Amino acid sequence: MIARSLWSNRDFSVFWAVQALSEVGNAFSLVALPLLVLHATGSAAQMGLLTAVAGATSLLTGLVGGAWADRFDRRRLLMLCDAARLVLYGAIPVCWALNPQIWLLYVVMAFASVFEMLFRITYVTAVANLVDAEQIVAANGRLEATNAIAYIAGPALAGVVAGFFGPTAAITINAGSFGISLVGLAFIRLRPTAWPSADEAESKAARAQDPRSGFRIGAAFLWRTPVLRSLTVLLTVTTFLSLGMTDVFIYHLRHGLEQDERTVGYVLALAGLGTCVAAAATARLRRSWGFGPCWLGAMSLCSVSVLVLVLGGTGQVAVAAVTICLYSFGMALAGVCSMSLRQQVTPDHLLGRVTSAFWTIHGSLAPLGAALLTALVGRLGARGPLTAVAVVFLAVVVAAAFTPIRQRHPERTAVQLPQTQPTDASLSREESHGDDAEARR
After folding, report:
1. String of DSSP letters for 86-138
2. Is the dihedral of CA 231, 236, 241, 245 positive or negative?
């Protein structure tokens, strides 16, 4: 029933198709940008610093991006983000051909990450406007599965393209993918945002408020919902370490295992396979096991896979490939479960602000973490820093077992706004009072 209705949903199908093609381009950039920095500088720290710059500007965008996603036309916002990234990424190969400058990558990534963050926030809200509530997990699983397929083909092709034509050629393909997404989005329609019927005038007035207040509204909802509160806190820890992991994997393969660009692409393609399998299996695993066992099991797998990567031994490319694949499986399973839960328990008119606050808070330390992790790996090698990552991931699993995250169906007990929901303004007024009963839970 769910699969048939999703297939018959024209707007979702178009959205699904163009985003899959766009992700192929993103997969090219995933390999090409670190390789371009590595070719130019030979430094893992420079790779991490570029990632940190992008992460920092994403965080600043998160403070206002959710309010924009709830306030403006979501389809047009998505199209604006695609157009901006088409221009920004397209500037890299043009300028690099004329006069290569490493500073250009920092400028482009700083601005591109603004539109990337805004796109990601709006993307999540758009899915909720394309499908019915009971289809959200299946829709997210389908999107993540096809995106992961793109990340199987993309890195492998990017490695080949970069090996024969240079990393800038792969970045050119990434820029073109945003053009494909831009055209496809012009042919879909999103359902109107469902605003509360009670006191609608006040609700609409709240949309015109200072966008920066949207972060406070989203953060208030996260705090009032115990399972989202716990997820936000624990993911702040894991994201501190995970943002720079792709850079570490690439550096480990290129310098630790002395592999070429094509091998890097093949290994990251296998990581995409892990993401694909996880995304395709998430809906079934969530129905069979429930949220808690899925999320805890996924994060445990991440911890074990990183530890095995460390213990795999020098020169063991096959071990590295399998463990990176398992790490990607765990991260994807945890990510789809977390995103779907947030979409299920959050009212549509707050979804942009809640998503923005969620990502901004749990990603607040990520740029620092990426810079620190890659600097340590460049100085000490991968073994020690990755062992610490594995230990921290395991500690997160233990801590989560004592929170509402462990529940099989936290969406049934999560605090939600009543049927006649308060407006954004009233929710903002209430945020300072908290909820003592929920805090004690």
Report:
1. HHHHHHHHHHHHH---HHHHHHHHHHHHHHHHHHHHHHHHHHHHHS-GGGHHH
2. positive
> CA–CA separation, 132 vs 383, rounded Å?
46
Distance between CA atoms of residues 103 and 120, nearest Å:
25
Structure-token pair, residue 242: 């995970």
- The contacts of residue 388 (CB under 8 Å, 6+ apart) are none
Q: Give me 250's structure tokens.
A: 């690439």
Asked whether 295 and 411 are in contact (CB, 8 A), the reply is no
Would the pTM count as exceeding 0.90? Answer: no
Phi, psi of 422, rounded to the nearest 5 degrees = -70, 155
Ramachandran bin of 258, using left for φ above 0, alpha for ψ from -120 to 50, beta for the remaining angles: left
- What is the distance between the alpha carbons of residues 369 and 288, in angstroms, rounded to a whole number? 35
Which H or E run includes 70?
A: helix 44-71
319-351 tens-digit pLDDT: 888 888 899 899 989 988 888 888 888 887 788
Listed residue (331, 345, 250, 347) closest to 47, CA to CA: 250
- What residues have CB less than 8 Å from 173, skipping those under 6 apart? 25, 28, 158, 161
Among 94-98, 159-163, 366-370, 377-381, the range scoring the smallest mean pLDDT is 159-163
